[in-house]
Amino acid sequence: MIVPQRNTPLLTAQGIKVHFPIKSGFLRRVTGSVKAVDGIDLTVNPGETLAIVGESGSGKSTLGRALLRLGPMTEGTLRWDSTMDLLAMDADVLRNFRRNMQMVFQDPHASLNPRHTAGFLLAEPLRIHALASGKELDDRVDALLKSVGLSPTDKSKYPHQFSGGQKQRLAIARALAVEPRLVVADEPVSALDMSVQAQVLGLLEELKQNLGLTYIFISHDLGVVRRVSDRVLVMYLGHVVEEADTHSLFQNPVHPYTQALIKASTAGSGETNPPLTGEIPSPSNPPPGCPFQTRCPKVMEKCRREYPSWTPRDGGRVACWLNP
Amino acid sequence: MHISPVPLLEARDLRIHIHTESGLSRAVDGVSFSIQAGEALAIVGESGCGKSLTAMGIMGLLPPSAFYAAGSLQYEGRDILDLPEAKRRALRGREMGMVFQDPMQYLNPVLTCGNQVAEPLRVLDAQSHGQARQRVLELFREVGLPDPERQMERYPHELSGGMRQRVLIAMALALKPKLLIADEPTTALDATVQAQILQLLRRLSKEHRMALLIITHDLNAVSQVADRVAVMYAGKIAEMLSVHQLFAGPRHPYARALLDSMPARIPADQPLRGIPGQVPDPRNPPQGCRFHPRCSRALESCSRLEPVFTDDVACHNPWPVSV
Questions:
Q1: Do B219 and A278 make contact, defined as CB atoms within 8 angstroms?
Q2: Interface predicted TM-score (ipTM)
Q3: B176 interfaces chain A, CB cutoff of 8 Å
Q4: Per-residue confidence at A6, pLDDT binned at 50, 70, 90?
């Protein structure tokens, strides 16, 4: 379902499916598939922060990668600015186009090459996209370091000489080097300490404002999501189960899964909530009907048979039979 | 809660230092606390504050470059730091169990879960194959693994993160330790699964009167599992307080700043700042109070005089007590 927007959406995805084949036996026959992302529509509007939340195995990272064409996609359409078809681009065109969309990963230890200095790491994307050279390249690298709260004197340092928070700042600077419009941040602060998390989130907020960025913010941490996002998609087992503007979602979570997630992440509430039982089922063998039916405290007969259709809720929509 | 006169474990002025190429790192530098049977104590702090090294020091699993510089560690009233390694090893597993952040790293990928949990039972407890198998099934049921018979035959990679952590907890519980140390046990898990694991740990601690020492950076986790909290900063305990006091308003400026770093606690119209600066280098900590360069309440004396830990807080200018 595409709701016409007054502004053109930056990114429009329809019917996104990412299935990975399961091969087994001597002949490695395809015997099934892992339905990591199983039919998702979304739009990202310019200037907004769209959060994708869910547990591991919900498909949120796979979706994030698919949206940037960093990962495979089985089915679906992906449009940029409503006009450009990202799936029609060949490798060369896509490589150039990647300037527009960048990614910040969870673990800066893993995403930064330990053999290169900070200066090299920041200059590399500028060189690849032929955006600067010589003196200008040096200046751009200095400016990037400053923009993320590091110092130009850090240029000659290697990643291991930085603290975790500084490394993530470096990873953010690297993503921003090519002046993207869309940044997909996949759990960008999960590996960091609390006081540093707040620093880095503050930096992301500041950069967004200064540079007019659009974020897709993938996270399992609802405390963080509540603070940084404008709109939230709640994913479960490859599906979006609820979608709403952040304020409405937290004020009035409608889907039982959203309710459980919000409860589980409320610190110091003093309540001892009985948490949800069980874990997310395997995406290679999802239950019939509603994907959440195996853990839902309010499951009904209908949920076991039929996949719930979308119904509107305040500020968004929800896929749950309890909300007719 | 019943409090026994002798704590199960008591650290007094424990100091663990590390030889590094660039000098001596005073990673744990005078830490005192005690845990009673059945109590859940959380040590909270940022990376590098010495919380994990404290845990490793209790287990006797210090890396080769680290050593006990001073202080004592009493387990059931006797000092265990002077024990020869063989006796120390006997404490591990049998008296003290440990659970780590990333279960995959601590599970053998080529052994089935059943076999690896049975290993300590067969090796240390000389149980027969059949006995060990029965006990593993019991343990798997206790830690809430669904379909325990099936999990016995599965390999770690076939399990979800939450299930792997349950297997690791089962392994730590195998020999019925009196103290369970959990180092960031839920950091790698999702919110709903995190809540389950924390509740499991808390239940096990209360049911078996097992002392639980949780090492974490996550205040959300602390609120779900602990009775008391030690907030550590740069190798020292800044404040010792109840979970209720922690969320009502801690007195140490670091503890309060940490609480105020939780994004959900900051009004939307105020920028997120965290705590300015970084954790100091333990090879060269600041003079006086180690937090003073980052502290919003620092007095002139804070840069000269190291605060003494009195009345559960180590600060020259603490926040007034909140009710």
A1: no
A2: 0.73
A3: no
A4: low
